[in-house]
Amino acid sequence: MDQPRHSRRTILTFFMLSTFAIGMTEYVVTGLLTQFADDFQVPVSTTGLLLSAYAIGVAVFGPLLRVVTLKFSPKPLLIAMMVLFILSNTLAAMAPSFNIMILSRLCSAIMHAPFFGLCMSMAMNISPPDKRPAAIAAVNGGLTIAVMLGVPFGSFIGGIFEWRYVFWFIVGIGILSLIGLIIVTPNERPVEVPKLKDELKIFKNKSVMLIIAIIVFGFSGVFTAYTFLEPILRYFAGFGVTGITFSLLFFGIGAVIGNFASGRIVPNKLTERLMFVLIGLAIVLALFTTLIQFSVLAFIMAFLFGIGTFGTTPILNAKIIIGAREAPALSGTIAASVFNLANAIGATLGTGLLHAGASFTTITLVASGMILFGLLLTYVTHKVEDKTLFE
C-alpha cells in the first residue's frame, strides 16, 4: 500500500461520515414507520419490510458483490459504491409507491456490506495492532452516530414536514462523503491479489463460525424488538413526535457510548466483555415494555437499549475481522453481511409475531430470550475458541 497522503484521523473521519450516511439510511425508517403506513396506505406491520428487505439485501447481495469485485482496488470500489448509494436514496426520496420504496432499499443494501468491509479493512491496515479494535469501532462509529443523531433528526423532520425530506438530506450527506472519499482514501493496492479459494477458508475457522452463530441466533433478537421501537414507545409510553424523537436520541447516545467503549477493549478480553454486555441487554429487553410506561424510565431504557445493542457490535466485528486471518479481503464484508442477516431474521420474526396477533410485550420477551441464547453460545465460544488469534 502506498503511504497515505492524509493522516489516519482524517481518513477515519471521512469513513465515519460515509458510514453515518449509510447507517442513517438503514435505521431512519424505524422512526418513520407510521408515516410510511399512512402515505403508502399499508399496515404498520408491513412497513417492517423496509428494514427486513434492506437487511436481506445486505446479507445476500453484499458478499456476492464483494466476490465479483475481489480483484479490484479498494478506492475506486468505495467511490463507485457511494455513487450507487446516492442514486438509490434519490430514488427513495421520489418513491411513488411502497414497492418502489422497497426497491430503493435493496439498491442501497447491495453496497452496504462491501463498503463497510473495505472501510474496516483499510482502517486496520493504517492502524497499529493495539489500535485495530478502536479503528473498527471508529468505522462503526459513523453508524452509531447516525443512530444517535440521524434517526431522531429524521423522525423529527418527518414528523414536522414529511419523510421525503429525510432522504434528500441523506443524499446531501452522501455527496459530501463521495467528495471526501475521492480526496483522502489511500490508493491501496494489495501486494498479492486476493484469491477467492483462500478467502473462503474463513468458513473453516472454528472461532469465526462460533461468532457468526452468536450474531445470527443471538444478536438477531435485538432487531425483533428494535424494528418496532417507534410504535412500542407510542403505545406504552404514550409519546408523540417529541417524545419519540428524544427517546431515539437517548437510544443513539447509548449506542455511541457503547460503541466507543467497546472499541477500547483489548483483543484478548473481547469474549469476556461480550458476555457481560449480553446479560445486561437481555435484562433490558425483558423489562422494556413494563418500565417505559413511566416517561423518565422510557428515556433511561432507550439509553440502556442503545448501549447494549451497539456495545456488542464492535466486539463481534473485531472478533471476526481479527480472527479471520485467512480472509483479509472478505472478512469485513462477511461481518457486515452476517449482522444484517441477523437484522433480517429479527425484523422478519417481529413482523411475523405481530401479524400472528402477538403483543409488543411478547415480542420484547422473545427478543430477550434470543439474546440469552446468544449468551450461551458466547460461553461455549469462550471455552473452545483459538485464543492465540487474539493475542
Descriptive labels:
391 residues; 79% helix; 16 helices; globular; Growth Hormone, Chain: A; mainly alpha; 0% strand
Over all CA atoms, what is the radius of gyration?
20 Å
In the CATH scheme, the class would be Mainly Alpha
Strand content range: under 5%
Helical run tally = 16
CATH topology: Growth Hormone, Chain: A
Which structural class is indicated by helix and strand composition?
mainly alpha
End-to-end Cα distance, whole Å, is: 25 Å
Integer tally of domains: 1
Q: What portion of residues is helical?
A: over 70%
How do the SSEs run, as a string of H and E? HHHHHHHHHHHHHHHH
The largest sheet is: none
Query: Any idea what the CATH architecture is?
Result: Up-down Bundle
Q: How would you explain this protein's 3D organization?
A:
By secondary structure, the protein is mainly α. The chain has one domain (8-390): MFS general substrate transporter like domains (Growth Hormone, Chain: A), CATH 1.20.1250.20. It has helices at 8-27, 33-40, 44-47, 49-68, 74-93, 98-125, 132-160, 164-184, 196-199, 206-226, 229-237, 241-262, 270-291, 295-323, 331-355, 360-384. Helix 7 (132-160) packs antiparallel against helix 12, helix 10 (206-226) packs antiparallel against helix 14 (295-323) and helix 10 (206-226) packs antiparallel against helix 16. The protein is globular, with a radius of gyration of 20 Å. It starts with 7 loop residues before the first helix and ends in a 7-residue tail after the last helix.
Could you give a short description of this structure?
This protein is mostly helical. It has a single domain, classed as Up-down Bundle (Growth Hormone, Chain: A). It has 16 helices and no strands.
